[in-house]
Amino acid sequence: MTQTLVKARLSAGLIATVVFLTAIASLATDMYVPAFPQVAGELSTTATQVQLTLTTFFVGMALGQLIGGPVSDQRGRRIPLLTALVVMTAASIACALAPTIGVMTTARLVQGFAGGWAMVIGRAIIVDLARGAQLVRVLNVIAGVGGLAPIVGPLLGGLILQLSHWRVSFWLVAALGVAMTVAVLIAVPESLAPEDRHAGGLRNFLAAGRTVLGNREYVGYLIVAGAAMGALFAYVATSAFVLQTMNGLSPIAYSIDFAANAGGMTIAALISARLAGRVPTRKIILTGQVAALSAGVAMLAGALWLGTPLLLAIVCFFILMTAQGLMIPNGGALASAAVPDHPGTGSAVQGFVQWVAAGTIAPIAGLGGQHNAVPMAVLITGGAVVSMIGLLVVAKR
Hints:
The protein has helices at 3-9, 12-30, 36-42, 47-75, 78-97, 101-129, 132-146, 149-163, 167-187, 202-213, 216-245, 251-275, 281-306, 310-338, 343-365, 374-394. By secondary structure, it is mainly α. It folds into 2 domains: 1-184, Up-down Bundle (Growth Hormone, Chain: A); 215-397, MFS general substrate transporter like domains (Growth Hormone, Chain: A, Up-down Bundle). Helix 7 packs antiparallel against helix 12 and helix 8 runs antiparallel to helix 12 (251-275). The longest helix is centred in the middle third of the chain and has 30 residues, at 216-245. It is globular, with a radius of gyration of 20 Å.
């Protein structure tokens, strides 16, 4: 693959399409969460069963990325990506029409699986076409612009509930699936030449997995991003209880604060993109880790001895979320750069680890109930420590 071909294919339209692909998980989740009470009432089910649809979506996301990456290493990127988008659109329609919670849960699993499949292929396409500082820069731009989805999602979901029905959010995701399919057809060429593809089969998949996991540098950066993702979802799972139930913040004020924190993460990722090639990426990651650790320790002290005061929580949450913009995209970029011969498998393992971390940490963070922030603070602090171990010990240069 010549450098001329790389430049020709890594277009603004292609990058915009990959941003579109990475935003679907946040939109499909954040637009739906505000409607949980309405879903439980209409489908005659419990809150726990409705929350299970969120868990199955995360499971699907993890499995879709784990399987989709290696398949795209074998079959190429374009056809598997288009197939995933068609399946995701169909699953979204099934969610919109679901008559029972069982159908909804199954459709959400398939929706997450296809969405994860599409997401990992989008990331692999970028790894196919970019190297070095350019790879770090582009992945940070994708993370930064894609970070707008957690800002827009809850607000859009709330607006839908005000003006219409909760099922409209799934019709909107289905419409976005159609739009993404058209965008891929127009802007995304095949990025993996036939001679660069790997043979298929379980044996070769396991061999590729052993190869990427046998790379110490890759594993170190995998830990960096995975641990940061766990800390991020400890915040997502409990921040509403900390700010609203414990400190009396109104739902509108909470939505504004949530959006501001997501904005901090987006700005940090975009700044990282500007610094790529000028400042060592490892130094940027370490800056984020120190900030996240400071926020976690302060939050833990406040939860243990001060009753988790509002101002402390708001400041710590903002610092934590901004730090994620320095850690997650840069850790992922360096992990991908460590295994350039297996971009699909490397991206798949990354996605699997990050979404498993998200799905595992979120319920653990809520063990303290609605009036205890200690478990959440411990997980945030622990996530920062584990992420630093990944950078300074496992991926030590």
